[in-house]
Please model this.
Amino acid sequence: MTAARAGRPGARRRLLPQLIVDVGAPIALFYVLRGLGASTFAALLAGAVLPVATAGVYWLRDRRLEGVAAFMAVVMLLGLAVSLISGGTRFMLARDGWVTAAAGLCFLGSIRARRPLAYLGARPLLEGRFRSDGTPWETLWADEPAFRRIWRISTAIWGIALLADAIARIVISYTLPVDVVPGLGGLLWPVTMVLLQLVNGVYYRAAGLWRMTSGYGRQPAGAEAEAVPSAASTETSASTETSASTETSASAATAKRRYK
Model:
């Protein structure tokens, strides 16, 4: 799966081409098999097997699936399982809709988890590489409530968008001609992803995410602790000055009485 390689140097440059392959190859396979005379069900089943096989190749090569890569592997296996359920051609066409709905619910369910899914997906891609002063994201997560809130809201945005995408897929699967649905469903992916990137990008900037990761607007560690002794020192100095002034006034008064 594409996300399995996201954490390695150069993976971001290969992300878009690999996404095109992951989305486009099953659709192309469907239309090739249909052109060769395969049934709609058989062509759809072959398209469901291909992404799982691709993810298996990536896992054998990297020997690990992290974060959203593991999540997407589970989603693809779920898609294959749904494909094997006897529900007719229309049900098979709606497979991506059902699986996308499950993914959206997983995002929404992770909002209050220890680490939400949007954070787990973005960290391998962006941590230390994009507008960063080198501070680990786990440190920001522990120290900055605003940082945690941004990723929980972003996860909610992802969940809602995936559920909307799922509804659209299920509707077109049961209403449009059978051979039109796979191609249209493939076109829906980039539309959803581009809109998600735009909405999240605007939100990240407005919420100050990149200022935090760049080190701006964050209180340096220990600054609060240093401020307390400083305040105490100021109060002590003021108290000392007041006491000295009082003693000086008393001494002057005593000397005046003696003079008289």
